[in-house]
Amino acid sequence: MTQAATWETQGPVGVITVDSPPVNALSAAVRQGILAGVMALDADPAVKAIVLLCNGRTFIAGADITEFGKPPKGPPLREVHEAMEYASKPIVAAIHGTALGGGLETALAAHYRVAVPSAMVGLPEVKLGLLPGAGGTQRLPRLIGPERALKVIVDGDPIPAPQAKELGIVDALVDGDLKQGAIAYAEMLVKDGAPVRRVRDVPIDASRLPENFFADFRKGIARKTRGFPAPERIIQCIEAAVDKPFEEGMRIEREGITELMASTESKALRYMFFAEREVAKIPDVPKETTLRPIAKAAVLGAGTMGGGIAMNFANAGIPVTVVEAGQEALDRGLGIIEKNYRNTQAKGRLTAEEVDRRLGLITGSLRYEDLADADIVVEAVFENMDVKKDVFRKLDATLKPGAIMASNTSYLDLNEIAAVTGRPGDVIGLHFFSPANVMRLLEIVRGAETAKDVLATCMALAKTIGKIGVVAGVCHGFIGNRMLARYSGEANKILWEGATPHQIDSVLYGFGMPMGPLQMGDLAGLDVGARARSEFPDLFPIDPKYPVIADLLVERGRHGQKTKAGFYKYGDDRKAVPDPEVERIIAEEAAKRGIERREISAEEIIERCFYAAINEGARELEEGIALRPCDIDIIWINGYGFPSYRGGPMFYADTVGLDKVHAAVEKYRQRYGDRSWKHSWLLEKLARAGKGFADWKDFV
Ligand code: 3H9
Known about the structure:
By secondary structure, this protein is an alpha/beta fold. It folds into three domains: 5-261, 2-enoyl-CoA Hydratase, Chain A, domain 1 (Alpha-Beta Complex), CATH 3.90.226.10; 297-472, Rossmann fold (3-Layer(aba) Sandwich), CATH 3.40.50.720; 499-592, Orthogonal Bundle (N-(1-d-carboxylethyl)-l-norvaline Dehydrogenase, domain 2). The chain is built from 28 helices and 19 strands. The strands form four sheets. The protein has an eight-stranded mixed sheet, with helices on both faces. A six-stranded mixed sheet has the order 1-2-3-4-6-9, with helices on both faces. Strand 3, helix 2 (77-85) and strand 4 form a beta-alpha-beta unit. Helix 2 packs parallel to helix 3 (102-109). (S)-3-Hydroxyhexanoyl-CoA (3H9) is lined by residues 22-23, 25, 58, 61-66, 77, 98, 100-102, 105, 124-125, 128, 130, 132-134, 136, 257, 274, 277.
């Protein structure tokens, strides 16, 4: 017997128990253990039925992702499933927690499935750029029909057990003790003389599929799955399940997963899976750090940002007070919050009661005194150092001891803000991204004096409010916006040098960004940035050789979508249409400044925009602003829409090869100087050693 799985008999029922913390993933030892258990119990004449279940917090959560890409060890999962399926007595999979991926596929190789009502089942492989590669694409359509199976597998979302029962994935729900319930179910099967029911033998009636079903499905998901090869491969497998014998379908599935496993997209998504978990770990803050209780929150400022932040607390069930300076601004802010909730309700995503409950958790106030009992206050007032300092002095005078004072600043020096208080250890940056109630990213800015328990509490809070928290050090723009300045700076220069807005945007969209930077500017309003630049020249220094073109457009009344003219012109349908007028303005201004214009290739646009950002990211690693390359990648994917199938800018740089990236960075530094292409010794060292950011630790 192996430790990963053990077996025993209880009367006529053999019970195999998998025990491989934390999530009972199908490592070689688990596969070996299940196989041995099935063989032993199948060969035991006293055993009439078998139950497969798991110890710990969950049923099998999938294949062991850490084994992917390594030489195979132990019995293949296919062999385990065949042993189960061809066992001579019924096998019942007993599910609690999450039966995901290979875990659900193992349950599908059993003859019956029972689950506790709280369990979830699903085939999330698509989220790792894969397809279910252990029979899932062939067994699920046989069990629940190809239409439903295709949706379940392409979405990859977990399904609650009661719904899984309705779909026919689960045969029965078990209330109370799962082991006893599953044994009772197995005994009932024995008593009824129930057959071994092999899913592989269930016929599919193809004539019931709507005409053009697969073609229509392909069309329906095309935009959403841009850049991801897995969904198409999944469709091909389900097509095979419909019109080919089981074994032929399995062959097509195997081909698909082998190809996807080797793809950069899947490697990137698997990297992201672990990166998301890694960013939660802060090397010098122990996991056991005692957290400060957060039972009551407050937000200063009822603008777009403040309102969105307040909604996050209310969504998580935390009462929140929103403080504004004037009644009118407060009413407007609270009104927008209510409108947002009602919109969600109208879309059927929240019930009226739930909206009322959440609104009931939000209280408006005009008095700082009402913050006195808050456990955390997030300030989202005007982005100006003097204003922020004034706010923090007042907070310091008002808040109870131990309350966390957070700033939502996206650029300012948090240490300078903290220094005006008598308790800099309680000060932290919580940089929400707009819209704050929607965007998943939360940059958590650690000041020089921020206390460890404040940091740990805010990391935990991020999780509570459904965000992914990433720690950043203090610098201008922190991790994300500091890199963004390089990215958009290059786009601006490239415009001067001859590319059209449409060319730049379509190249970057083609790369996988949700929108190019110029169209994005039009959407956000070009006047917003222009105002910030003119009011705070120190915060947003302008390259005198390449002034910001958006500012020239604003001078001409082109503020973006809202004035129907910006980098593009817009009709009533808000569609961006390239405007020769903009090209004329840029060409004329370039001529005045003596900037030579030329054809610029797509390759140059990608290199300059992304490599400038990557070079800046490398400098952030050198300076300790970012803890790890994966922190940068998580920020860019969740805050800036960098395509997840490229794994974030730093992972992407590794896939290009740092020698190539470094050579290009050097070329551009020579051409444009140090202003936007400052030297990174880390990038140079890694490139010279033939390494990637994945190896950065050995070089700092
Ligand atoms: C697959 O099955 C392919 C098949 O079709 C067959 C191919 C032949 N492997 O998330 P947590 C680790 S693809 C290895 O914090 P939770 C995780 O890294 C797979 N390790 O817990 C973490 O480690 P650490 C399809 C794994 O309670 C620890 O376990 N399955 C795996 O918040 C705790 O994880 C999936 O995609 C794994 N499969 O959530 C499911 N899973 O503590 C992936 C987790 O060192 N897993 N770890 O940071 C999940 O979605 C969540 O982990 C789960 C638990 C919902 C299960």
